[in-house]
Amino acid sequence: MKKPRALVVDDEPDIRELLSITLERMNLEVSSADTIAAATRELRATPFDLCLTDMRLPDGDGLSLVEWIQTHKPQTPVAVITAHGNVETAVRALKLGAFDFISKPVDVAALRKLIHATLKLGENIESTIQLPQVKLLGGSRAMEQLREMIERVARSQAPVHIYGESGTGKELVAHLIHEAGPRRDGPFVPVNCGAIPTELMESELFGHRKGSFTGAIADKQGLIQSAEGGTLFLDEIADLPLHMQVKLLRVIQEKSVRPVGESREHPIDVRILSATHKNLSAQVAEGKFREDLFYRVNVIEIRVPPVRERLEDIDELVDSIVTRLGRQIGNRSLRVTETASKALREYHFPGNVRELENVLERAATLCVNGVIDLSDLQLRPKVAATEVAIPNSVAPGERLGDALEDIERDAIVRALEQTRYNKTKAAQLLGMTFRSLRYRIKKLGIE
Predict the structure, then answer these.
(1) HSE on the CB side for 416, CA within 13 Å?
(2) Is 215 exposed, middle or buried (0-12, 13-18, 19+ CB in 10 A)?
(3) CB atoms inside a 10 Å sphere around CB 34
(4) Per DSSP, which regions of 265-354 are E strands?
């Protein structure tokens, strides 16, 4: 079996020798170069399965070589060796197309993980670029561009930030990036940053040791470590409290995590994807999101289009959802009338694909003889109001506490109905945080 070929680019003979010996022990055939000019000659003459380059070279820097490879040899994954703590350079390299980076002094175990991931990508190049089309429906230009972007970023280890309105399918996009890349055999761990109570967040993400705090009766692995060798998807990352943003920044920079109650850090091999429906740039400007973390998680940005920007995909989405619903309710044959289809094509869908699924699921339950008509859809008129009307009167003799709870309950129910039970949007409408709304919903027994 032909050995994979690697090119090591460094101007220090000792480091070239160390890296070459390490790679040869991993059964790779290794060539080396001490300048960018020598490296490009090697790359032109011989196909390589990977390139590992230092940042400082006599005739330029490693970023120039990364750019050259992306232009002339885009199928050759390239990783860069950066100075310890120089994350800015690493981020620039990732933006230019580097597969990954490793810091000096080079940790042999970390290097082995990087090489394994790179070679795995090369071995599965054909399956890597063939996404499971059935999962991402739509032939519109917007969806074609989204699929093309997923194909490109799947071959990198760079952090990706996915943004789009609620219900557009951001987690699906994250899952596709994971499945199309070299980490597909590793775990995909989704974390909703807005759903974890603040006081439990550090323990949930980083884990803890027995006895580190009251109630810690056993060691617990954190969600970050549970994604080892795979992908960590941080959904609604904008909801992370500032003190947790600092800790996450260190995890990304150092590629290590320290559980609560432990003195040493554990190295991790995790790719980080994030998402939010909020404008992170605006959050940074308002001081609600750290600028340094923003640049770490936003190395590559992917926008998921709302349904109103791809209305030509509605019929395909409806057919797929209706077919799936028919199987779920006992292989029942469902049909959507032309009148109902026309109404769906003209509807504004503020809740996007998630709302379309809910509308059709309700219609499938209400329809007669498996025929979904306009009346079964129960589409709501476009809501122009931006505020929720709150009653301001208390009946004579009524207990103030009970009256206030009734007023609060009514306001929350109205907001939930107006936003089609999207709690994040309802919280914005009410001028409170997502966590506060969730607490009030539970306290008032609304759910």
Answers:
(1) 15
(2) exposed
(3) 18
(4) 266-267, 271-276, 300-303, 335-336
Residues 249, 208: contact at Cβ < 8 Å? no
**β 371-372/335-336 pair status:** parallel
The residue to which tokens 């439990």 are assigned: 200
Q: Say what the pLDDT of residue 401 is.
A: 53
Compute the C-alpha angle 51/56/28, nearest 5°.
25
Distance CA 348, CA 159 (A): 32
pTM: 0.72
**What Cα–Cα distance (Å) separates residue 308 from each residue in 148, 348, 349, 423?**
20, 6, 7, 21
Give the closest residue to 272 by CA, choosing from 77, 100, 78: 100
Note whether 263 and 220 are within 8 A (CB).
Answer: no
Written as six digits, the tokens of 308 are 């109103």
**Residue 79 φ/ψ, nearest 5 degrees:** -120, 150
Q: How far apart, in Å, do the first and last CA atoms of the chain sit?
A: 61
Tens digits of per-residue pLDDT, 340-375?
A: 999 999 888 888 999 999 999 989 888 888 899 998
